[in-house]
Design a protein that fits this description.
The structure holds 3 protein chains of 3 kinds.
Chain A (H helix, E strand, L loop, with lengths): L1 H27 L4 H14 L3 H24 L7 H18 L5 H30 L3 H21 L31 H20 L1 H11 L1 H6 L4 H28 L10 H11 L4 H25 L4 H14 L4 H16 L1
Chain B lengths: L1 H26 L7 H19 L2 H25 L4 H24 L5 E2 L19 H18 L2 H11 L1 H6 L4 H25 L4 E2 L7 H11 L4 H25 L5 H23 L15
Antiparallel strand pairs in B: 1-2
Helix pairs in contact in B: 1-5, 1-8, 1-9, 1-10, 2-3, 2-4, 2-8, 2-9, 3-4, 3-8, 5-6, 6-8, 9-10, 9-11, 10-11
Chain C lengths: L6 E12 L2 E12 L3 E5 L6 H8 L7 E6 L2 E2 L5 H6 L2 E4 L11 H6 L10 H14 L15 H14 L4 E5 L7 H16 L3 E6 L2 H7 L2 E6 L2 E8 L5 H9 L8 H8 L22 E8 L11 E5 L3 E6 L6 H8 L5 E8 L2 E2 L5 H6 L2 E4 L3 H5 L6 H10 L10 H14 L16 H12 L6 E5 L7 H16 L3 E5 L3 H7 L2 E6 L2 E6 L5 H9 L4
Parallel strand pairs in C: 3-8, 3-9, 6-7, 7-8, 13-18, 13-19, 16-17, 17-18
Antiparallel strand pairs in C: 1-2, 1-4, 4-5, 9-10, 11-12, 11-14, 14-15, 19-20
The chains are: A mainly alpha, B mainly alpha, C alpha/beta.
Chain lengths: 348, 297, 521
């Protein structure tokens, strides 16, 4: 257990270092760093309704991040969560469009199925290219993100175009209110239930199945599990599919919940933030749930900053990026410091 | 025909500079996914520098300094703090994208595109139709040749490759692999600054947020496609640029009959194809797996 | 003072610590110019650390190293090389993608810029002058180990080395290769180079060295003494130290390389030819792949209660054979049966279910995931015999792992600790406890004692013997001929992917050595 305390402390130390870098960047750009941080904390956690907003942004992020945990644990750098999220939302939107008029108890499950399948397929082709040919999944999933953005632009300005939409941002026809699983405000019992279900199932998958133990081993040393008789194809492809399906699920939740329609380029930082959450949580499912709420708060602060505090929302992107830069860092100096500190903490 | 070649050269040149940066980093053992961030920082610094100082040369200098400083930060994080190269590279890219947006907003108070009064020096009338191209286009083959000589025909290049491929071998002849990586990344920073400058200032002279649109990642794919060889990677970058230019050309010719968005997707599809092909030909390349437990100490 | 007594290298109170482990402690020693000095000791005695400290790769925590009476700045390879010190590593330090010429050039002092043609011509001349038979344009990764070693030595001599240190140079060589190396070393001595050679076989020490020094547990237990004044028995005792129990024959055999420990235990078994074999390979060939030479037409039979030894110079298809048996290299022709079951097209999972167990070559890569917990490593084999989505109770697995590790005398503090925190011997025992369970029928042991100290080596041999007594069939792959001759019931030799000889006790080292290098007798 003490090992995990050390890793949490280490993560916190590097997050502080990352925030210091952010402060430096803010200052160089001509903003007051303390003001900026105060506004971010205020927008994320302190203003009225902050918890609800953290949930609204954090729950979909948690779903995607849980998928990222699965593929990263198995050793595959599927950084295409953003694309899988988009394709999931697009497939769900098509399903809703085709089934429009049928009762909600048919349409909603169909949309979820379509969304998860779409996300899974969008993760599957890089997975197959990686497992069959050894094509590096970092590049292919990244390219998948760019391709998904193009597909989204095409869909929102073509097949699903909302004719009454404004010229500013292309978007799809809004979903029938009967098919929505939350209001635009974004939190509803349905969404919370979905997130809890995902959390429980994935916790079981990671901690209580042969797949969980073996994929963890494969992620740290694929050669060793191969010599034990594992077929990386099975473990790897399952990991890609699960992570893609979850990103697609998150896309469906965003579409049928708070957004209610597809807009070109919506939530552009979702996938990257989800990757960050998984890494900050050190690839644990429980940790991901906690960290997702924190980053959900930050995401909601991005809307708050320009409106209330008159500060640029890119401050949140910078904060996230700086944390990404440092979060996987390992440092002997920091580790030694933590260990000494722990020893002293026990003896005194 | 001339306008097609001009279009290809325009889109290829920034890509080639950044690809060369990626090649040098790759040789030294760093998978450089921060190229995108460095490139946009270079583009932004060039335009803002031109606006603020009025001189393109001081702007270029500022861009290089910024990219070198960012490269040193990246080096510190991956070399000294042993951070995962891929995640840290994505973080650097995020810092570049976010930081440039913030800078534009802080100076001009809006996120709109910034236009510079002047751009890079052009080739001029003696080059006829090609006179509108910037001087960096003409210098590109020179840079490719210089990087090739550096990596493939000097002892320094051998030591750089040894630092990447077999750090212990490098150490046992008295080469410090960490320092070689620092030098590699700093050279890469200069090249990214040039690539960004050409992108922003080589033809239209403006900066808008996210204007690199994945070119840095495409450059990285070219590095892999070209097996980390300066000439091979350059040709891979040219290939991506040609595919992109053909897309735009096809659109002019066929008009509405070909979906516009499909053509936009061509360079990305070509990149995926390139990665798949190079993996097929070489039986799979994989330098960094998982959180890599086995690394040379 | 006579020429002979001149001191070339002097270490004063040199200590090296890695974290909490003391690798070298207060070593003070000096070596005379122009002679061949051996440094011996068990694995883990600090030999490699000693070599690296002298050559500047490791920076000592205390003490000082003087070359020709001048102190070297600590941990500076360049200064050490300028002073004429060069180290040839046990696992060669040459980038695999380089050509020979490039590998020579990257450590050279001159030639900042070159043309490919000029580079190859220059180094070809140099290699020819040293009588190294290799083309300067060949890639390092395509070279056989013996050539690799010659290239590495040639590289070390580029900068006019006056003190050459060789770290376990014979570990990868055939007996003939070792003889050639010794000739090369003697030649170097003749031209005035001082050679320090690190060894762990007493036989080899006495064959090549003028003086010998013994390291044990990081301490110098015997300064350089003339080899003429010491015998093998005495040396063996110095290396192992005042053992709590009298030296077991096996242990002594491992050190002295003596064949006196006759094969008494081998006589016991019944007439094996009548028993159904556990493993049978009939005319097995594999396709060419990047991982070693392909197999050509291999026939092999291992019966219950038999240890079959597989000898050969490293890189002659031993690895491919193990991979073919483990379904990790595709069998293109022929047939493989385990316990009568045709498994030629079966997966490793199926073969393991039939009783196959593998102790792989690379303990820390193929055998264990160093960053994973002990219980995860231990339960991997078992979990792979279940469906992927079957439920597991980690607490139960941890408990059973603990019981098993205790039974195998593994020293560990907690089953949740990382496998990387164990010593080499303990790590190997974890693998043994996983691979040598009661259901095991066929055990492939690939280099199971490499890098282990005497105690752990004896433990591994003992385990193999017990498994044999239980009726397991065992394939032992080792590059240590003494080990093979000591415990195997039968020995086959591989060369270039073929089986080129089968031997039964009593073995003749010269015969096996000849087969390994393809010299027909």
């Amino acid at each position: 257990m003490t090992e995990s305390i050390v890793s949490v402390l280490r993560a916190l130390i590097f997050i502080v270092i990352a925030l210091a870098l952010c402060g430096l960047i803010f200052s160089v750009a001509g903003y007051s760093a303390p003001d900026m941080f105060r506004a971010i904390i205020d927008g994320a956690f302190l203003r009225t309704g902050a918890l609800q907003q953290a949930l609204r942004w954090g729950l979909p992020l948690f779903i995607t991040a849980a998928g990222v945990v699965i593929s990263f644990r198995a050793g595959y750098f599927n950084i295409g969560a953003q694309g899988q999220f988009y394709i999931g939302a697009i497939c769900a939107a098509f399903a809703a469009d085709w089934l429009n008029g049928l009762p909600a108890f048919i349409v909603i499950p169909a949309c979820f199925l379509a969304g998860m399948t779409g996300g899974a397929l969008w993760a599957m082709w890089p997975g197959i290219l990686r497992l069959r040919s050894g094509a590096d999944e970092v590049i292919t999933t990244l390219m998948g993100n760019f391709l998904a953005v193009i597909v989204l632009i095409y869909v929102t300005s073509g097949p699903l175009k909302d004719p009454s939409g404004s010229g500013q941002q292309a978007s799809s026809r809004p979903l029938d209110a009967a098919y929505r699983i939350s209001t635009s405000y974004g939190v509803s019992p349905t969404i919370i239930a979905i997130a809890i279900l995902v959390g429980v199932l994935l916790w079981l998958l990671v901690n209580r199945t042969a797949f969980g133990v073996l994929s963890g081993l494969a992620g740290r040393n694929a050669t060793m599990v191969t010599w034990q008789g594992a077929r990386l194809w099975n473990i790897g492809l399952a990991s890609f599919i699960i992570s893609g399906a979850l990103a697609g699920l998150a896309g469906t939740v965003e579409l049928m919940g708070p957004n209610g329609r597809l807009a070109s380029g919506f939530l552009p930082a979702h996938g990257f933030t989800a990757i960050l959450i998984a890494l900050v949580a050190n690839l644990s499912i429980v940790g991901t749930a906690i960290v997702a709420l924190f980053f959900g708060g930050l995401a909601s602060a991005a809307l708050y900053l320009p409106v209330i505090a008159g500060l640029p929302s890119s401050a949140i992107d910078i904060t996230n990026a700086a944390i990404a830069l440092f979060i996987t860092a390992k440092s002997n100096i920091v580790d030694r410091f933590l260990r000494n500190w722990r020893k002293r903490g026990w003896t005194t | 025909m001339d306008d097609v070649i001009i279009a290809i050269l325009r889109s290829a040149t920034p890509l080639v500079y950044v690809t060369l940066a990626g090649v040098i980093a790759q040789r030294a053992g760093i998978w450089h996914l921060g190229l995108e961030g460095l490139m946009i920082a270079g583009a932004c610094a060039t335009i803002l520098g031109t606006v603020l100082t009025g001189s393109i040369f001081s702007a270029l200098l500022i861009a290089m300094v910024i990219c070198i400083v960012a490269s040193i930060l990246f080096w510190f994080v991956v070399e000294k703090l042993k951070a995962n190269q891929i995640i840290a590279g994505l973080g650097l890219t995020g810092l570049g994208l976010g930081g440039t947006t913030l800078a534009v907003e802080s100076i001009f108070g809006s996120q709109a595109a910034v236009t510079a009064p002047s751009g890079l020096p052009r080739l001029g009338a003696m080059f006829g139709a090609y006179g509108t191209l910037s001087i960096l286009v003409l210098l590109m083959p020179l840079f490719v040749f210089a990087v090739w000589v550096l990596l493939c025909r000097t002892r320094f290049g051998l030591r750089l490759s040894a630092a990447g491929e077999h750090p212990f071998a490098a150490r046992s002849v008295g080469v410090n692999p960490g320092r070689m990586r620092l030098i590699a990344l700093m050279i890469g920073g200069v090249l990214c600054a040039l690539g960004g400058a050409e992108l922003a200032s080589g033809s239209l002279q403006f900066f808008s947020q996210n204007m690199t649109a994945g070119r840095g990642f495409m450059a990285f794919a070219a590095v892999i496609f070209g097996a980390g060889h300066p000439i091979g990677a350059t040709f891979a970058a040219l290939f991506f640029a040609i595919v992109g230019a053909i897309g735009i050309r096809a659109q002019l010719v066929f008009g509405e009959r070909v979906p516009h968005d499909l053509l936009l997707a061509l360079p990305y599809l070509a990149t995926v194809f390139g990665i798949w092909l190079s993996a097929r030909l070489r039986g799979g390349v994989k330098a960094v797996t998982g959180f890599g437990e086995l690394r040379d100490s | 003072m006579s020429e002979e007594k001149q001191i070339v290298l002097e270490c004063r109170d040199v200590s090296v610590r890695y974290g909490d482990v003391v690798a070298l402690s207060g070593v003070s020693i000096s070596f005379a110019r122009g002679r061949i000095h051996a440094v011996v000791g068990q694995n883990g005695a600090g030999k490699t650390t000693f070599a690296r400290a002298i050559s500047g790769l490791v920076s000592p925590d205390t003490g000082e190293i003087r070359i020709d009476g001048r102190a070297l700045p600590s941990g500076n390879v360049n200064q050490a090389r300028q002073a004429g010190v060069e180290l040839v590593h046990q696992s060669f330090a040459l980038p695999p993608s380089f050509t020979v010429a490039e590998a020579m050039q990257f450590g050279a002092a001159d030639g900042r810029i070159y043309s490919r043609r000029g580079l190859e011509r220059r180094w070809q001349t140099y290699l020819d002058s040293l009588n190294v038979k290799v083309k300067a344009g060949q890639r390092i990764r395509d070279l056989p180990v013996e050539t690799l070693q010659s290239v590495e030595i040639a590289r070390a001599l580029v900068s006019d080395a006056r003190l050459l240190i060789l770290d376990e140079p014979t570990a990868v060589l055939s007996p003939e290769g070792a003889q050639k190396l010794f000739e090369r070393i003697r030649h170097l001595k003749d031209v005035g180079v001082t050679v320090i050679v690190i060894l762990h076989k007493i036989r080899e020490v006495l064959a090549i060295a003028d003086t010998v020094a013994v390291l044990r547990g990081g301490l110098l237990v015997e300064g350089p003494v003339e080899c003429s004044g010491i015998d093998a028995e005495k040396l063996a005792e110095l290396i192992i130290g005042p053992a709590a129990r009298p030296l077991e024959e096996d242990q002594k055999a491992a050190l002295t390389g003596s064949l006196d420990t006759a094969h008494a235990h081998l006589a016991q078994s019944v007439d094996r030819a009548t028993v159904e074999p556990v493993l049978k390979l009939s005319a097995v060939s594999t396709r060419h792949d990047s991982d070693g030479p392909p197999l050509e037409d291999i026939d092999l039979v291992i019966r219950p209660g038999e240890i079959l030894g597989l000898a050969g110079v490293e890189g002659n298809g031993q690895r491919t054979l193990v991979r073919a048996i483990s379904a990790l290299a595709e069998t293109s022709e022929g047939k493989i049966t385990i316990e009568g079951l045709d498994v030629t097209r079966a997966s490793l999972q199926t073969r393991r279910a039939a009783g196959l167990r593998v102790i792989p070559f690379e303990r820390n890569v193929e055998g264990l995931s160093l960053t994973s917990a002990l219980w995860e490593n231990w339960s991997a084999r078992e979990l792979l015999q279940r469906p992927l989505l079957s439920m597991v109770r980690p607490s139960e697995l941890r408990q059973r792992c603990g019981t098993a590790l205790d039974a195998w005398e593994v020293h560990y503090s907690n089953v949740t600790q990382r496998a990387g925190s164990l010593s080499g011997g303990n790590a190997q025992k974890v693998i043994l406890s996983r691979e040598m369970d009661e259901q095991a029928r066929l055990i492939i042991a690939a280099q199971p004692t490499r890098g282990l100290d005497i105690g752990a080596t004896a433990f591994v041999w003992d385990s193999l013997n017990r498994a044999r007594a239980r009726g397991c069939a065992i394939l032992l792959i080792s590059s240590d001929l003494d080990e093979i001759m000591d415990i195997c019931d039968r020995v086959v030799v591989m060369l270039s992917g073929r089986v080129v000889g089968t031997f039964t006790p009593p073995y003749d080292l010269a015969d096996i050595g000849a087969a390994m290098t393809g010299v027909s007798k």
